[in-house]
Amino acid sequence: MENLIIKFIGSRKDQLVNDWKEKMKNEADERALRLVSDQVFSGASNEFVEMIISNLKETKEQFNNRLNDFSEKVVRLGWPLHFVTEGLRTFSKLVWEGMQEEKYITEENQMDVIYTFERWMTPLQNDVVDIYSRTWERTVSLQKIALQELSAPLIPVFEGITVMPLVGTIDTERAKQIMENLLTGVVKHRSEVVLIDITGVPVVDTMVAHHIIQAAEAVRLVGAKCMLVGIRPEIAQTIVNLGINLTQFTTKNTLKKGIEAALELTNRKIVKVEGTK
């Protein structure tokens, strides 16, 4: 029966692919379609259909290699899992209806064809879901690592002076990343003064302040001074109301003032050159 299905698909392949693409365009997420060109969508669709057909003709190893490559591609394209599984169901339905129209399916072989479809599509769907999910998890994990590395950068601005701008909420996991980046960066850049800029931190509560104090203490232990900058009036009021003690290190309300103070600590200052505007 596999040969019967392969024979039918071979005779109607172009029509099947075109019908599949038209049906799936209606199912596709509008954002996913907007992010890729018609040419890219068409190419990925052709590859998807080829992958489905290959499951009937190739060895398990060959098919898995093809499926792995395709999963990485559709994850990058933003095809959600439900779209992929719906694509399998739609193609199976098109093949079944086409085989009925062309009289490939008769009363005598109908049950055999149904059984063959079941043996074809069920394992295929299981393999697609499994490999797609693992590809997606790996992609998300890599993105998470990249975001963590970007979420707490230590930037050298002058010799001996570095800045760590913080944006967004600070939880325990991110605080650990901040601490690691600080200590590694202080040694790497030979920093004498480190400015932690919290201008982009929306809320400073007891836990956030605790993490910042720990980071400052760690910086002090490796031989550098720590300064907290970007303290807005509402943040200052919150710190006072919570009774948080930040007296162990210098604080400034803007990054500009912090850099000026850091330059003074390193026996330097910004001067205006005569003749400049």
Count the helices. How many? 10
Proportion of residues in β-strands: 5-15%
- Alpha-carbon Rg, integer: 30 Å
Number of domains: 2
Please list the strands of the largest sheet in the order they lie side by side.
Answer: 1-2-3-4-5
| Extended strand count | 5
What is the fold-level CATH name, i.e. the topology of the largest domain? Answer: Globin-like
Q: Which homologous superfamily in CATH is the superfamily of the largest domain? A: Globins
Report how far apart the termini are: 86 Å
Structural class comes to: alpha/beta
User: Mean pLDDT, rounded to whole units?
Assistant: 81
Give a brief description.
The chain is an alpha/beta fold and 277 residues long. The protein is built from ten helices and five strands, in the order ααααααββαβαβαβα.
Question: Could you explain how this protein is built, in words?
Answer:
By secondary structure, the protein is α/β, with parallel strands linked by helices. The chain folds into two domains: 2-149, Globin-like; 155-265, 2-Layer Sandwich (Transcription Regulator spoIIAA). Helix content is 68%, strand content 10%. It contains ten helices and five strands, in the order ααααααββαβαβαβα. It has helices at residues 2-27, 30-35, 38-57, 60-77, 81-101, 110-151, 172-189, 206-221, 233-242, 255-265; strands spanning 155-158, 161-167, 193-200, 225-229, 250-252. Strands 1-2-3-4-5 form a five-stranded mixed beta sheet, sandwiched between helices. Strand 4 (225-229), helix 9 and strand 5 form a beta-alpha-beta unit. Helix 1 crosses helix 5. The longest helix has 42 residues, at 110-151. The protein is rod-shaped. It starts with a helix and ends in a 12-residue tail after the last helix. The mean pLDDT is 81.
